[in-house]
Specification:
Layout lengths: L1 H124 L1 E10 L9 H14 L6 E6 L7 H23 L6 E5 L12 H7 L1 E9 H7 L10
Parallel strand pairs: 2-3
Antiparallel strand pairs: 1-4, 2-4
Helix pairs in contact: 2-3
Length: 258
């Protein structure tokens, strides 16, 4: 009995010792694994934190990109608006240049018109002879002959339709008679011509200028009968402004002398 108990005790001690050894082995084996697991879990936790931080950074980048895209859209819109405004400004500037050119052309036309008007006014104030006639008279006479009346008719026709003209009538005599008599007779001859033009052809009296010059300007030798005949005359000149001669034509023509 004692022997049995002893053996049992020894066996129990053996088992206890064996158990202790096993636990120690297990503890020694498991401990490094636990350490590695713990280290791995720590690393995983840090990686998770880093991943989370990276995620935050990515989110911030996404938000930044979104803001940048919005800013770019706004910038593009402003750029488009600026381009449109610039195009409108160019159109307005082009219109302004065209208006300025038009005003310049209009001003130039105005200057040209003014210059032309000045030339026209100057031409209207300068007169040229359009037609001349010379009618002859009998000795000591102041009556018009039929030939003289025909000549005056031709001159009146030349004045017909003209707006402005002047008819100059100047009477002359031969040397026969006194100076006083010749001046009076030459004046009567000029008056007879003016009266005939005014009464027969409605020539305005204001358009007729007359003068009796006596024996002032002989056109032939007064010592001969033919010369004295040519000196007993009235010269009639139709004057018109230079501006009228372009349309009417300068047809100065001396009348036939009898």
């Amino acid at each position: 009995m004692k022997k049995t108990i002893t053996i049992a005790g020894i066996a129990a001690l053996g088992l206890f010792a064996t158990g202790c050894a096993t636990k120690k082995y297990v503890a020694q084996t498991v401990a490094p694994i636990d350490a590695r697991v713990t280290s791995t879990e720590t690393k995983n936790s840090e990686q998770d934190k880093q991943i989370a931080e990276h995620g935050k950074s990515i989110d911030e980048l996404d938000r930044g990109l979104s803001r940048t895209k919005e800013q770019l859209k706004d910038t593009d819109a402003k750029a488009v608006s600026a381009n449109e405004a610039a195009a409108k400004a160019d159109q307005k500037a082009d219109g302004a240049w065209k208006a300025a050119d038009g005003a310049k052309s209009l001003a130039q036309r105005g200057l040209d018109t003014t210059a032309q008007l000045a030339r026209t006014v100057d031409a209207m104030n300068k007169y040229q002879v359009l037609k001349t006639e010379t009618v002859l008279f009998a000795v000591n006479g102041s009556s018009l002959t039929e030939d003289a009346k025909a000549q005056l008719e031709e001159l009146a026709k030349s004045a017909d339709g003209l707006d402005r003209y002047v008819i100059e009538v100047q009477g002359y005599t031969d040397k026969t008679g006194s100076m006083t008599t010749n001046e009076r007779l030459s004046q009567q001859r000029a008056q007879e011509v003016a009266r005939y033009l005014a009464n027969e052809y409605k020539i305005p009296v204001r358009s007729i200028a007359l003068l009796g010059s006596g024996y002032a300007q002989p056109v032939a030798d007064d010592k001969t009968r033919e010369g004295r005949k040519l000196n007993r005359r009235v010269e009639i000149r139709l004057y018109v402004p230079e501006a009228a001669t372009a349309s009417k034509g300068l047809t100065a023509k001396a009348g036939a002398e009898q």
